[in-house]
């Protein structure tokens, strides 16, 4: 297997780049500079058949990484939402790492030439410099208008060509279907032919360099049932020989096996910065908190001269040795994993103090404390200054590949609320605070993990450090920081297998 790694750069004045052109403009330049394209989907397809093999998502630096079978040729298709914006062609040998380089205007033009050569018999792969220069000017104009490459004339000419028909000139195969068995441990391949043939299946997992041979089976119909490994990718094709010893074969298909859902309990140790107060005001009225847990319910806060403060929190946990994800996930190359959680000022608030400015019915307060299963918050309304908080954090799992960070799972549109209790002792010289957390969030997989999800049901405790070193208080890192511990239940599941729908909507 081989890991493809590269970077996607597009001109700064294209609508596809989230970063403004003015941030990169250099005085005297006639042409917009190329800048990294973040959050783009990189679809890896077989050059022979156009079948998707895997996919990746570019990080903030425009970098991507994808695990593919060695010894094959691929087109890389870069999408922003459903718009095809860039291309590249790569021919992979047996090396473990393949540097794709920059995916941009030059790679796109070369990939179009290669696609024309593969799709149109007799088409020239190496075009003149004049033609390429004209194409490049048209491509830059095309990008500035924010148009998908499917409407780019040189590529549009070959879009409807089908070069794979030459693999089976006699049309021996009339139907080929494949699916995984109910338990996901077997790949089933069904085929039909227009005459009596001998059919052989060739199958290889991504991690092996050669195809395994199964068969032949004689007849006009048949099926192969092959064992597969969890979440491993496979290439396969069928080859048929009729009574006249004439051959035909299918294009190469790519599939990825499903995996068995996994539930794990883990204790996470991390570090937190915040809460940092960014807004403080006196308020009144009611706040209704809808909290979803084992005991779904509503908590009503009645505010009378209460203090409301918006806050920010950042925290991070190391997941590397927690075995939270199935072992098969590790083969994608991300050996070091972290869980990060961010509470933003616009969706995170504390209300207090409870008992004076904030009124909560006794039965609701007891019900609130019972939401913590492992450790009931040690708070006393008589002895502590207590605030009730609620926020919608952004949560992500980050994987590291050769010192580059990639987002693997995230709740892109946070809708799961987290309950917080903040307290500090009254009538004491100790001003350090303790924050208790209770929440449940669902994260969705990105890139190769699309179709997978991660549910995190957690409760935790943050204790502010009592001894602090001198620091720069002008940055986010304020004096409020310290260790945080979570007791969490992780559920890793899958709603569908790998079947990228990137091309829809073009």
UniProtKB/TrEMBL annotation:
It comes from the Bacteria. This is Uncharacterized protein. It comes from Candidatus Caldatribacterium californiense.
